[in-house]
Each structure stands twice: as structure tokens, then as C-alpha cells.
Amino acid sequence: MKRSRCKKISRWIGPYFDGELSEGTRSLVEEHLEICPTCRLEHDRLRQTGELFRRGFAASTAGEEPDLENLSHRIREEIRLSEMSAKETSLGQRFQEYWFRGTKVLVPSALAAALIAVFIFTIYKSPPPVIERYEQNECIIDSIEGEKNTVMFFKTLESKITVIWISESEESGGEEAGLWQEFMV
Amino acid sequence: MARVYGLKEVVFLAAVSILFCFSTPAFAADAEVFNTEVRIILASNSDRGFDPRLLDLKNDLLALNYMSFQLLDQVGIALKKGETGRLKIPGKRTLELTPTAFDQRKISMQVRMTEKGSSLLNTRIRIENHGTVIIGGPSYEVGFLVLAVTAHFPRF
Predict the structure, then answer these.
(1) Of A163, A166, A183, the CB nearest to B121
(2) Residues B96 and B121: beta-carbon distance below 8 Å
(3) Burial readout B79-91 (b: 16 or more C-beta within 10 A, e: otherwise)
(4) Secondary structure letter of residue B28 according to DSSP
(5) ipTM reported for the complex surpasses 0.85
(6) Do residues B123 and A134 make contact, with C-beta atoms less than 8 angstroms apart?
């Protein structure tokens, strides 16, 4: 149905272009051209051909004898060139659309997300775990050896620092240490 | 209306991102370097007073029941895991520190003190990262040596 309608309208495109149609028929053609890209393309080509013809004719007759012999050749050449440039444009557009399809937003967004992720993981440091002051200096003694000495260990009251005290002799450990006895474990 | 980005721009942004990633410490090789700070302190009952450079340890040092504390030396040593750092301390003594591991926020370290070749102390400790342990007792001049050992293991 659509094809037969296009076939019917296409016969009227030429007269429509020349302004030879009745008002009713012209409206029909115009309505069809609005919705049918194929017929609209044919109409545009017809219009281009007419333009080329008019330009070619004007150029060839500008102050000179009309050169009708080369006119048709020039028109055909112009049409060929304009069709080639149209093809290249569409190829370029197709290439861009194919390779960057969906990347208008996707690629920049992905890159921005990657940069933000890197920034978060490297620059931002998570707040250190809350460590009570007494844990900050926590020290576990796994093993301890002293050949000839007495080794004492305890924690200070202020910062809970572990103190490992080597007493070189029993006498010095008792005298100088003074209140050491209170802290011996 | 979204802008169409050219291939050059995409490649440039990707290159910048990659360079940024590799320049950040998070992606750098893990060197496992332990930074150890040792403060050599003379504790005595003389009238020399309290060294202001030891104010951060004042209350802890005063718990040792000496009246005077003087900072003799302060040394920073950067050690890799398993590497032993040797430090000469007064009285012909040597302090050896060997960090062995970092696990659960604690630095494992072997600490050995020798005097004229014989061992005064040989201990294996696990200290909280950025924490301090005090080793003291060897006599020196009119008092006793106190070594404040602070260990750091920087992590990103």
C-alpha cells in the first residue's frame, strides 16, 4: 500500500516542483513528502538538479555566448561531486557514530569515576581507628633473656609505656631503683 | 546536549589516569621500611634537671623515680624487614634492632643489647605501630642509661 502510494506520488513530484498541480493534489503531495523520506529525497534531488542547471546556465551565459555543449557535462560533473561529498560526510558521521556510539557520556563518566576512585583510595586516608592512649604503646614481650642480669618490666601509669629494666646487679637494682619494688611485676 | 569526545581526548585522559595511578604510593612497590627512632637518655639523681626535649615522655620517665633526665643522643634508623640496625650506645655497648614483621598494627622486633661482646638483653617484642618501649638499666657516669625506642611502619 505504501509503495503504491509512493509510486503514485512520485509521478506528481515533477509537476509539483514545476507548480503545475492543482491545489488539492499539491496538498496531497506535500503531506506525503512530510512523512515519506524516499519521496522527499527524490524531490530534493530534483530541486538540486534544477539549481545546478540554473547556475550552470547562468555561468555559461554570463556576458558570453551560451556554451550549451559543455553545459550538460558541467551539470553532470557537479552532481557527481556533490554526491561524492555527501557520501564522505555520511561515512565520517557513521564512523564517528560507530566507534563512539554511547560514549558521549560513557567514556568521560568512566574516566571521571576512575579518577575519583583513585583519588579516594590514595589521597584520602580513612581516619585512624580510635586507639585508647593506653593501647598506643601496647607492647607484648614474646621472649626475654638476660645472661647475668635481672630483668624487670612494667608499664608506666601515664602512657602505659612498657619499660624493660636491666638490673646489672641485685644491689644496684634495689638501691637506685628506690620505689621500684612497687612496680615489679 | 552531550559533547562528542574525540579519540585524542580519550587517549589523553586515559594516559593521564594511568600516570596518576602509577605515581601514587598505593601502587608503588611495597618497600616495607621500618623507621625506628632511638633516644638515648641519661637518668640520674643529679641536679641537671629535666631536658625539655623529653617533655613528651616526662611523666613516663619520672615514673622511673629519678630526678634528672638528659637527652644524650637521638638517632633515626630506617630498616627493612629482617635487616639489623646496630647502634653504639655509651659505655661500649651496642643496641641491635631487627624488625621482623608487621601484623595487626603491631611491629615485631628483635632487640638485643650487648656490652663488650656479652649479651645484656635479648628480647623479642611486639609493639603497637608508632608506639614506644623503654629499655633501661645499664649504668653510665652518675646514672643509668634509658633508651626510648619508637617504631613506625608507614602504611598508605
Answers:
(1) A166
(2) no
(3) bebeeebebebee
(4) S
(5) no
(6) no
What sign results for the dihedral spanned by CA atoms B44, B45, B51, B57? Answer: positive
Helix (H, G, I), strand (E, B) or coil at B91: coil
Nearest residue on chain B to A135, alpha-carbon basis: B128
List the single best residue of A135, A165, A170 to mutate versus B (max B Cβ within 10 A). Answer: A165
- Count of other CB atoms within 10 angstroms of residue A124: 8
> Which stretches within A19-147 are classed as H helix?
23-35, 37-60, 68-99, 103-122, 133-136
Given a cut of 50, whether residue A107 has pLDDT beyond it is yes
Cα distance from B88 to chain A (closest Cα, Å)? 17
Is the C-alpha dihedral spanning A70, A74, A77, A83 positive or negative? negative
Inter-residue contact B144 to A159 (CB < 8 Å) = no
Residue A139, Ramachandran bin (φ over 0: left; ψ between -120 and 50: alpha; else beta): beta
pTM: 0.52
